[in-house]
TrEMBL record:
Source organism phylogeny: Bacteria, Pseudomonadati, Bacteroidota, Flavobacteriia, Flavobacteriales
Family: Belongs to the glycosyltransferase 2 family.
Annotated Glycosyltransferase 2-like domain residues: 44-178
Protein name, per record: Glycosyltransferase, catalytic subunit of cellulose synthase and poly-beta-1,6-N-acetylglucosamine synthase
Keyword Membrane: yes
Protein species of origin: Lutibacter maritimus
Sequence intervals crossing the membrane: 6-29, 292-318, 338-358
GO molecular function: glycosyltransferase activity
């Protein structure tokens, strides 16, 4: 029986090797390439907010004070019950030529749909080139618009990185940031090899004409989540999509502070992934399954000391390759402090994801 376990373990190692070297390595070991031509066309920055008065008051100055010469800020109030709309109007009074407000009313046909609110915002946007973020985010630099939109000179979709604020002496913070880093490595890498499958709404750009060429969110409008990743999964190709991971192009958000709230957030994200294209669901499922099986089978083999030299060598090789890939990627995305904790964070995350999968199978998560 242990011989079969060893064979399975070697096969799983090979799958992990392929993922880390040939897929994730495409991003980890890549060099940043600047577009051949400059981009200086007008840009519309869209922020959809629901009960985000405090965050808007705190973060809007970071968007308004961007150094880009020609942009508008489209603020979308999605049926808020707090003072979100009032805060938007206050900023509009200060910057009437730069800010546009879209006040979304209740619509029984699209009840509680962020996609409906975003669609209205996109229709109201004056410009062809759109850049998206969230109310609980802020750009890390005044050059955020410039860095993200410069890639519009060659592509219609730009995938960016949405980081989370670092909190000292917090394991949950490191776990959240590690999961975000691993997700970014995945979607940047798949885009790099010509098979883009998702982006994050905290930092994403695409053209208005592309949005309307596929009737916007029509194909998945009944799915409440996925205004970012499902749309990208639908329209992104190797010819129209690129990555932007320069330090000045990041956005930053405050992460969840309790495991319960983070689990609820991840349940929503995972439920959306079930609607990806079959090839992406297969590859992402294969990667997660191979992660889980690698550790389970290695524990069994080590426990029985069965061919332990071979097993230990494969574990060490996988650990070395993984740390190189995650290390180079973390350096690009300014997450260097996570690398040393990779084995611990990975194992913990694997079982969190298993719990989420089982939980989502039993009951559906709540959305927006």
């Amino acid at each position: 029986m242990l011989e079969y376990v060893l064979i399975a373990f070697i096969a799983i190692f090979c799958i992990q090797f392929i993922f880390y070297v040939f897929i994730f390595g495409a991003f980890a070991f890549s060099k940043r390439k600047l577009p051949n031509t400059a981009f200086n066309k007008p840009v519309s920055v869209l922020i959809c907010a629901k009960n985000e008065a405090k965050n808007l008051k705190k973060h809007l100055p970071h968007f308004i004070n961007q150094s880009y010469p020609n942009f508008e800020l489209v603020l979308i109030n999605d049926r808020s019950r707090d003072k979100t709309l009032e805060i938007m109007k206050e900023f509009h009074q200060q910057y009437p030529t730069k800010i546009k407000i879209v006040d979304v009313k209740e619509n029984e046909q699209f009840w509680g749909s962020k996609k409906y609110a975003l669609t209205l915002g996109i229709k109201a946007a004056s410009n062809e080139h759109l850049l998206f973020s969230d109310a609980d985010c802020k750009p890390v630099s005044e050059h955020w618009i410039s860095e993200m939109t410069q890639h519009f000179s060659e592509k219609d979709i730009v995938l960016g990185y949405g980081a989370y604020t670092k909190v000292k002496k917090s394991f949950l913070n490191k776990l959240i940031r590690f999961e975000t880093l691993l997700t970014a490595i995945q979607y940047f890498s798949f885009a790099k090899i010509g098979s883009p499958y998702m982006g994050v709404g905290r930092n994403l750009a695409y053209t208005k004409s592309l949005f309307f060429s596929v009737n916007g969110f029509a194909d998945h409008i009944k799915i409440k989540s996925g205004d970012d990743d499902l749309f990208i999964n639908q329209v992104a190709t190797k010819n129209n999509t690129t990555n932007c991971f320069s330090a000045n192009s990041f956005t930053e958000s405050k992460p969840k502070t309790t495991f319960k709230n983070w689990i609820l957030q991840k349940r929503r994200h995972v439920s959306t992934a079930t609607h990806y294209k079959p090839v992406h669901k297969f590859l992402l499922g294969l990667f997660y399954s191979s992660q889980l099986l690698f550790w389970l089978l290695s524990i069994v083999l080590i426990a029985f000391l069965f061919n332990w030299i071979i097993v230990a060598s494969l574990i060490f090789t996988r650990f070395l390759i993984q740390n190189l890939v995650i290390g180079f990627s973390a350096k690009k995305l300014n997450e260097n402090d996570l690398v040393i904790l990779t084995p611990l964070l990975e194992i913990f995350l694997i079982f969190v994801q298993l719990f989420i999968f089982i939980k989502n199978t039993i009951s559906k998560p709540h959305h927006w």
